[in-house]
Amino acid sequence: xxxxxxxxxxxxxxxxxxxxxxxxxxxxxxxxxxxxxxxxxxxxxxxxxxxxxxxxxxxxxxxxxxxxxxxxxxxxxxxxxxxxxxxxxxxxxxxxxxxxxxxxxxxxxxxxxxxxxxxxxxxxxxxxxxxxxxxxxxxxxxxxxxxxxxxxxxxxxxxxxxxxxxxxxxxxxxxxxxxxxxxxxxxxxxxxxxxxxxxxxxxxxxxxxxxxxxxxxxxxxxxxxxxxxxxxxxxxxxxxxxxxxxxxxxxxxxxxxxxxxxxxxxxxxxxxxxxxxxxxxxxxxxxxxxxxxxxxxxxxxxxxxxxxxxxxxxxxxxxxxxxxxxxxxxxxxxxxxxxxxxxxxxxxxxxxxxxxxxxxxxxxxxxxxxxxxxxxxxxxxxxxxxxxxxxxxxxxxxxxxxxxxxxxxxxxxxxxxxxxxxxxxxxxxxxxxxxxxxxxxxxxxxxxxxxxxxxxxxxxxxxxxxxxxxxxxxxxxxxxxxxxxxxxxxxxxxxxxxxxxxxxxxxxxxxxxxxxxxxxxxxxxxxxxxxxxxxxxxxxxxxxxxxxxxxxxxxxxxxxx
Length: 561
What we know:
Elements: H1 17-22, H2 28-43, E1 51-54, H3 61-74, E2 80-84, H4 95-105, H5 124-138, E3 143-148, H6 151-158, H7 162-174, E4 178-184, E5 202-205, H8 211-224, H9 231-240, H10 248-260, H11 270-277, H12 279-288, H13 291-303, H14 309-315, H15 320-332, E6 336-339, E7 348-351, H16 354-365, H17 372-383, H18 395-412, H19 417-422, H20 425-434, H21 437-452, H22 459-472, H23 477-484, H24 487-490, H25 497-518, H26 529-540, H27 544-550, H28 557-560
Parallel strand pairs: 1-4, 1-5, 2-3, 3-4
Antiparallel strand pairs: 6-7
């Protein structure tokens, strides 16, 4: 296995052939379809077609073309020849230069480095015809497949005029011995009816990695290193799989980070280490966003997710109609995805790659601060409560995953125990919203049982903070009451008098808050003045937005208008 342990994350061209084949994950079906199309074209020349593979940066477009190259090397199609152009083409600024580059790479043993681009090209038609004649004379097989990455950038760089695009369209439509397999972030350059390349490609989107794909990759990566993935490592990749948004590159980096950890206690740094490895990639992603769109991306992350376009317009002081076009760029380029709650018409959006969110927070929102607390809250809310959580239905399995993460985090963040545990209210709220109140109760009980099993933790302060967070996040009243009903079994009154007293205070508080929110005029404050004072102090711990929502504060005049 020598030479296969190092995996270049950002350049699959540097992977050796065995590594490319060994780590193939979630791409076999698409590859098989492409190989079938290529074989059909090589035996039936009249069936002209070209492929455009689309996906956001990091989806694995470069890897897929490299996988195609290696597969054809290992199992050649007898009538097919493949040329894979370099990922970037800085020497191609005119149409004929593309054909010349294909010609050059048809002879892999040639030492010719290619011809620099001309400063000025006047006779484009003649140069195109000469280069085309030379290319067609070099094709030795019934079908030449040309792999071209970043095809949209190539079009903008070398085929800027309608005449140039018309020549390319004529070649693609009439030359049966040539097939382009191109890639791009998006394929809108051939979806506009007024453009010369309209509908010249069959579009294929690279599928996002599923949670199972993450497990398969981790297992393959472990075998490649001569080991076997442990149950603990598989549990970690299960938990993190939704954090990557299905981005293959982020998933691969996380898997390798998990496998590189020798001491399980050090694995608390998984996400931080993955973000660090992806920093250059994420900087490039952010730099690529147009300026007005960048304002909306910042407002989404800075102001909280998910958010509707209406909310983003309010955050940026605009109207929804003003931002719709700029925001569509984020959707079209795979930065955000949309969701709609059952029975609701409004779409809400969140950043698909959660590691990108952590990078943004660490670098731009809270620079210089360790991200662990935010990472943990976001991770637990985003990943442990997804709808298809069948593998986490077992109470013990869920608790093991949750508290494995928490134990590591608490060990790395002494003095922040209350803050860490209280932020788990986000996860309970997410379960109530996206799964069911029953699942929210089950997760909340897991958290309480884990806390009760760790007497060294400050239970009273942590529980107070947890309930405040759950109220902030609008966890259903019934779920919070049911969880309070479990306290006597977890913290018997005889041994935990302060926790018992807190339970009574919180029950009284929930009763008051629900009555105020629902407008129950029959409610009266408790007769105990000390309890009233305590409830008032708890309410002061809530944010003004939550107090407005619950009816504890009246909106200011500016807000009513």
